[in-house]
Amino acid sequence: MDRYLYPRVDTPRILSVMLWPVAVMMIFHRSVILAVNGSRTDDFSTVYNAALNFLNRNPVYAENYTTVDPHYLYSPSGTLLMGPIAVLNPDHARWTFIAVSVIALIASAYLLVRLFGYRADSWVFPAVLFFFFLTESVANTLIFTNFNAFVLLGLVGFLVLIRNKKDYWAGACIGLTLAVKPVLAPVLLLPLLQLRWKVFITALGIPVALNLIAWPLIVDARSYLDRTVPYLSETRNYYNSSISGNALYFGVADWLVIVLRIAFVLMAIFSLWFLYRYYAKTDELLWLTTSTGVLLGTLFLFGSLGQGYYSMLLFPLIMTVFLSGSVMRNWPAWLAVYGCLSFDVFASREWEPFGRYLEYNKVPLGWSLLMITVFCVLLFRWLDIRNAEESGEDTSDDAPVTAPSPGAA
């Protein structure tokens, strides 16, 4: 009788049963309710208007960059790729863009789960989906309706394909994103270190070819170089979580900005060196995903513009928590994840200055703490290895324990 009163269900099955309905409802709420409702910040309208101007042979790069409204900053190749959205009316175009972005996010989650060796029917897939759509980064990507979901898909696709030795296709994933936004450009350091030149044929060839096609089709293409590119190099003091942007808003001294930027670059150089030396040959997955996170996290801090929803590009680094050599298996790393990905708002009526400080700094503090944590974890490992070698201990021990095989869990 007990087998009927207390049917046996294994833990992974219980987790799947718990997580799937919550993940599905989270996706529904973020996309159908919040995203369709929209927000005061509207990244889509500027893209739609630029696409409409492009199709109607009107100037595309004629905006007033002195305002704090979202600006159209895509290159001519990005304008060419975005052009078809203006065939629909604005509402239908926006809803279609949201729907395709959700598909891109789900595909990114699926590929990330498979990359780390888990099946799609495991509890890990709904857990990753739930985590994705729980974050501010994904929520505001859909609410503001911007291109970041496709950048994430390009990044994860690149990691999957380069692991499978499909270099041309891996480069194509990066190239298509570079044609619109150059945010993934630092990731090309990884195939460069491996001397995998085929990646660069498509990674650089696609945006170059698309720009050559788009240039004569845009009536004011020259304005992109004369007006937009100089603006991109400027540091703005609004919606900017980079070191320089945050410092400009709070009036931090220039010398301290320089010191901080140099410090994070030096930490990144050490982290990348250690990862390449000790993991590139023995644990390529851990090397690729952790190095990608270091490159992009440092770019967000060091660059002239770092926006909070870029944090979704750190998902492969966060996913390394499933690997035994991960730098994410400690509480400071997850405090940092909370800072840069939480959807919580810290605006306070009672303690207004303190709440405003937390709200404006949670993302840069999260990025900073994450990069510092990665550096410290790897530094301590290097010191342990050096001490062991100095004491004559054999450090060439067993191969690392990595993710489960694709048939696991």
Structure commentary:
This protein is an all-alpha fold and 409 residues long. It folds into 2 domains: 227 residues, no CATH class; 174 residues, no CATH class. Helix content is 65%, strand content 0%. Helix 2 runs parallel beside helix 7. The longest helix has 39 residues. The chain is globular, with a radius of gyration of 22 Å. 43% of the residues are buried. The C terminus is likely disordered. Pfam families: GT87 (PF09594).
| Amount of beta strand | under 5%
Count all strands and give the number. 0
Please estimate the helix content. 55-70%
Return residue spans where pLDDT drops below 50 for at least 5 consecutive residues.
405-409
- Silhouette: globular
Number of helices: 18
Largest beta-sheet characterization: none
**Secondary-structure element string:** HHHHHHHHHHHHHHHHHH
Mean pLDDT: 92
Class based on secondary structure composition and strand pairing: mainly alpha
Distance between the termini: 30 Å
Q: For the CA atoms, what is the radius of gyration? A: 22 Å
Provide a concise account of the structure shown.
By secondary structure, the protein is mostly helical. 65% of the residues lie in helices and 0% in strands.
